[in-house]
Write a structure and sequence with these properties.
This protein is an alpha+beta fold. The protein has a single domain, classed as YhbY-like (Translation Initiation Factor IF3), CATH 3.30.110.60. Helix content is 38%, strand content 21%. It contains three helices and four strands; from the N terminus they run αβαβαββ.
């Protein structure tokens, strides 16, 4: 679970990244979850974009993907959300405790 300082730090980092995960009408399918897992392991912080043809609630979808990937939802804004999961070798050494 992230505290408010960590969440603020990760939000600032997330503004500079492009979405690496696109979610369409299939929602949180096993393929989407697998892609999210791979991206989180490689990057720790990922941004996902929910396409217009997905009719699920974006906040619910973000929490579902986060639960299935054992990650934290940093922010949900518009049709995008950001996930964070600490990898074995972390890139964010300077993140607040």
């Amino acid at each position: 679970m992230l505290n408010s300082k960590q969440r603020a730090y990760l939000k600032s980092k997330a503004t500079k990244i492009e979405p690496v995960l696109m979610i369409g009408k299939g929602g949180a399918s096993p393929e989407v979850v697998q892609s999210a897992n791979e991206a989180l392991e490689a990057r720790e912080l990922i941004k996902a974009k929910v396409l217009d043809n997905c009719f699920e609630d974006i906040r619910d979808l973000a929490h579902t993907v986060a639960e299935r990937t054992h990650s934290d939802v940093v922010i949900v804004i518009g049709r995008k959300f950001v996930l964070f999961r600490k990898a074995k070798k972390t890139a964010f050494e300077d993140m607040p405790k």
